[in-house]
């Protein structure tokens, strides 16, 4: 009898600890510390597997849809063309813009008018100088009216130099303007190709080849499933023990996944608590390279909390 009495305190301790763990589990989490109290395991139940990236890929230009041959379930790479807008008119506009740019460059490089105006000014200015020199030697040998005509001609040639120089500057500006037209035409041509913005799986095809689409119309929906997040919630007091970067393991209670442990790390801890229950959302990201894990399933998370 004394033997049983000596074991009663230990048994009571075990019962108290077990009840505490059951209360934690009932609340959706459990936290266990090591002997030092510095590192512990925090269990988060009823966490939900969710997508990180999900994109409705839109058309950016109005037009007839072509080259859409994808089906639901196909994998695509970022930058891969998934569809096209008919772009014959855009191709012609691009060609025209490039030709106009070449013409403007040729005009800007042509300085014949400037050189001719400068030479004309040189001749007319020399003519005025000779007439003035002649009158200094022999007064009145060149009539004043003639000198005025020569001065007017020289002034006109000087203005022609200014005009030719300004015309060449404007031609240089037109080179930049037509270059912008080329860039705009190239941009519009590129937008006629609808490309996947992320790596992922096509889960919905919303249009068909031959249909007219408007900017913003969804063509396909792509989701990334090789990397997922698992979102759970813990009381604020427990969230304070978790840090960004803490290692985590996820287990899903499904027959085909019972022997699989998904490794990841904490990437987000909501700075706001739920005002109803004081819980805080915590996200981890995991690799799903074998594509076994499916968004929407429930998972149990174990976070290795390091509170040093």
Radius of gyration: 40 Å
Which consecutive residue ranges, at least 5 long each, have pLDDT under 50?
1-28, 32-37
Number of strands: 15
Count of discrete domains: 3
Number of helices: 5
Sheet/helix structural class: alpha+beta
How is the CATH topology of the largest domain named? Answer: Elongation Factor Tu (Ef-tu), domain 3
CATH homologous superfamily (4th level) name of the largest domain:
Efflux pump adaptor protein, beta barrel domain
Biggest sheet descriptor: 6 strands, antiparallel, barrel
What is the percentage of strand-forming residues? 25-35%
First-last Cα distance: 46 Å
**Which strands sit side by side, in order, in the main sheet?**
2-11-14-13-12-15
Can you write the helix and strand succession as a string? HEEEEEEHHHEEEEEHEEEE
Task: Considering the chains and any ligands shown, give keywords for the structure.
disordered N terminus; 308 residues; alpha+beta; four-stranded antiparallel β-sheet; 5 helices; 15 strands; Elongation Factor Tu (Ef-tu), domain 3; single chain
3D architecture notes:
Helix 2 runs antiparallel to helix 4 and helix 3 runs antiparallel to helix 4. This protein starts with a helix and ends with a strand. Mean pLDDT is 85; it is low at 1-28 and 32-37. It folds into 3 domains: 25-52 and 224-306, Elongation Factor Tu (Ef-tu), domain 3 (Beta Barrel), CATH 2.40.30.170; 54-86 and 193-223, Beta Barrel (OB fold (Dihydrolipoamide Acetyltransferase, E2P)); 88-191. It contains 5 helices and 15 strands. The strands form 3 sheets. A 6-stranded antiparallel beta barrel has the order 2-11-14-13-12-15. It has a 4-stranded antiparallel sheet with strand order 3-10-8-5, with no helix packed on it. With 308 residues, it is an alpha+beta fold. Strand 1 and strand 2 form a beta hairpin. The longest helix is centred in the middle third of the chain and has 48 residues, at 144-191.
């Amino acid at each position: 009898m004394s033997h049983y009495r000596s074991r009663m305190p230990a048994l009571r301790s075990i019962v108290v600890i077990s009840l505490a763990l059951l209360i934690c589990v009932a609340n959706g989490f459990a936290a266990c510390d090591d002997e030092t109290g510095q590192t512990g395991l925090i269990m988060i139940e009823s966490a939900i597997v969710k997508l990180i990236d999900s994109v409705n890929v839109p058309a950016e230009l109005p037009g007839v849809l072509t080259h859409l041959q994808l089906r639901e379930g196909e994998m695509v790479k970022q930058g891969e063309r998934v569809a096209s807008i008919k772009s014959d008119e855009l191709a012609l506009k691009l060609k025209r813009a490039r030709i106009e740019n070449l013409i403007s460059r040729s005009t800007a490089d042509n300085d014949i008018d400037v050189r001719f105006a400068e030479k004309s000014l040189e001749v007319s200015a020399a003519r005025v100088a000779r007439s003035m020199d002649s009158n200094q030697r022999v007064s009145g040998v060149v009539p004043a009216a003639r000198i005025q005509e020569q001065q007017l001609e020289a002034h006109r040639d000087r203005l022609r130099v200014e005009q030719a120089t300004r015309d060449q500057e404007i031609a240089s500006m037109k080179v930049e303007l037509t270059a912008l037209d080329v860039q705009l035409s190239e941009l519009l041509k590129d937008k006629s190709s609808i490309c996947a913005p992320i790596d992922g799986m096509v889960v919905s095809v919303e249009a068909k080849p031959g249909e007219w689409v408007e900017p913003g119309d969804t063509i396909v929906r792509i989701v990334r499933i090789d990397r997922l997040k698992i979102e759970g919630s813990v009381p604020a007091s427990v969230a304070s023990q978790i840090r960004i970067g803490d290692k985590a393991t996820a287990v899903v209670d499904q027959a085909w996944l019972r022997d699989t442990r998904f490794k990841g790390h904490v990437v987000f801890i909501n700075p706001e608590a739920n005002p109803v229950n004081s819980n805080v959302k915590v996200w981890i990201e995991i690799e799903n390279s074998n594509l076994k894990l499916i968004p929407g399933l429930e998972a149990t998370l174990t976070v290795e909390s390091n509170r040093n």
